[in-house]
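pls design
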């Protein structure tokens, strides 16, 4: 069935408290942000006026008759703003977009002077001094281009906004991989810095030789030659000798990140009328995967590991697999949950948010799924192929479905499953702008790299596949 889309710009805006938990109805399904007294937390202070309630009833009646779209399709929430300070729309948090872009940056940044901020915040100053005036203020995950290293304590940088200034070296690091670390370090080979307050430069390589001057602490030098305890250096137009005991090798900070992941994503689509057969196969497959030594993770847990890899070198266990399920409806969600609980594994549920509501998959159901260790992420709102939609329609699908799940679960949404596995560069860019770190596509690869995180291959698993076939698909040869 073709779906009708409309832009929020062409409609009058609904009051903010109502949008945050808007009751959207279609064929008797109400999209709700409040279910019952048992599901409302103390921090939920949304207030509904009688006007809001009357409008919800009108929406329900219009949706049931198809008056909202002319086709009987589910009506859309107002477009979700992404800015700060908006007072008349629900706001989507996009504060992690910069960090996620950094996480997805693969080996393509090697050889470029791009560094990441590793502290919660970092001041860019107009001179190499902590008392100098601020030019800009950066936050964790921001990127800068390093123009030079004036000394071992400071870097001259250019921000993404084009501002130039100086930052403390201790709070920035260059992301690299195992394969590229040696190449990165080679660029600083032979460089030293004065690791004391100052060091005397002498005419000859002995302590009693004539003093030519002093080299201040933190100064970076590249010795012309090193002979035992002495280094021949050039400084301030003079050539002389300094004691090696006052010099230390200079290299900036590097964070080594895993760039390639062995992580099979087994994609089960719950096709209507075949749910029983699919769930039976899923149970058999899981038992065989366990026997083969596989462990089960989720997109949410993978997200946490990727974020932590921005701080330190940790590795993903290559025995991990992800079970991802789409095609989830109010009619099959309970059976799916029961089957996976019985199998005692974690899995990711990708849900089309049009099914979420008082008469569908309720907030309480979502919270129960998460309490049982399952990960809940969106399969967009309608399930339409995003490649066939306009930019505005794709943006609404991505942002709306993310906002609905985050509001109801109070958990960050980090991944989206593209309906029909359909994605392209345009769709992935819009997913990035909507605040997603990962996207699930389709493919047979078990191994992918960072720059594929927005199109992770999902291996389609069918009920007629044997357990042995699935184990083979999940095993790297």
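designed seq:
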């Amino acid at each position: 069935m073709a779906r009708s889309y409309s832009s929020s710009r062409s409609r009058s805006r609904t009051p903010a408290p109502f949008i945050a938990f808007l009751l959207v109805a279609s064929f008797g399904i109400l999209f709700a942000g409040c279910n019952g007294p048992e599901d409302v937390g103390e921090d939920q202070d949304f207030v509904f006026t009688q006007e809001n309630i009357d409008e919800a009833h009108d929406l329900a009646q219009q949706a049931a008759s198809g008056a909202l779209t002319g086709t009987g399709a589910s009506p859309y929430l107002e477009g979700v703003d992404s800015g700060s300070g908006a007072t008349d729309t629900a706001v989507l948090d996009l504060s992690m977009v910069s960090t996620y872009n950094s996480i997805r940056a693969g080996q393509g940044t090697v050889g470029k002077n791009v560094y990441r901020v590793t502290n919660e915040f970092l001041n860019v100053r107009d001179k190499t001094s902590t008392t100098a005036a601020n030019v800009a203020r950066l936050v964790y995950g921001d990127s800068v281009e390093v123009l030079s290293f004036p000394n071992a304590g400071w870097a001259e940088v250019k921000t993404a906004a084009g501002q130039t200034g100086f930052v403390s070296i201790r709070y920035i690091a260059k992301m690299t991989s195992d394969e590229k670390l040696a190449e990165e370090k080679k660029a600083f080979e032979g460089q030293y810095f004065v690791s004391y307050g100052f060091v005397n430069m002498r005419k000859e390589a002995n302590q009693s030789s004539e003093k030519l001057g002093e080299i201040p602490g933190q100064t970076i030098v590249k010795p012309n030659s090193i002979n035992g305890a002495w280094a021949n250096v050039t400084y301030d137009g003079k050539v002389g000798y300094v004691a090696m005991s006052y010099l230390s090798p200079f290299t900036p900070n590097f964070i080594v990140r895993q760039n390639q992941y062995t992580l099979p994503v087994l994609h089960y689509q719950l096709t209507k009328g075949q749910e029983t057969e699919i769930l039976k196969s899923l149970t058999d497959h899981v038992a065989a995967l366990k026997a083969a030594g596989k462990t089960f993770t989720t997109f949410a847990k993978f997200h946490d590991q990727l974020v932590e890899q921005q701080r330190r070198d940790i590795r993903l266990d290559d025995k991990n697999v992800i079970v991802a399920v789409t095609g989830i409806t109010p009619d099959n969600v309970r059976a799916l949950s029961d089957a996976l609980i019985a199998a005692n594994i974690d899995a990711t549920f990708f849900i089309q948010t049009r099914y979420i509501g008082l008469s569908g998959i309720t907030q309480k159901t979502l919270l129960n799924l998460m309490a049982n260790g399952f990960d809940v992420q969106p399969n967009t709102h309608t399930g339409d192929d995003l490649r066939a939609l306009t930019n505005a329609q794709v943006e609404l699908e991505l942002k709306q479905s993310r906002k609905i799940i985050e509001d109801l679960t109070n958990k960050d949404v980090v991944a989206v499953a593209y309906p029909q596995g359909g994605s392209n560069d345009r769709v992935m860019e819009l997913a990035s702008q909507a605040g997603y770190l990962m996207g699930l596509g389709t493919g047979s690869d078990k191994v992918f790299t960072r720059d594929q995180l927005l199109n992770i291959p999902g291996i389609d698993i069918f009920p007629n596949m044997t357990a042995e076939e699935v184990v083979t698909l999940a095993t790297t040869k």
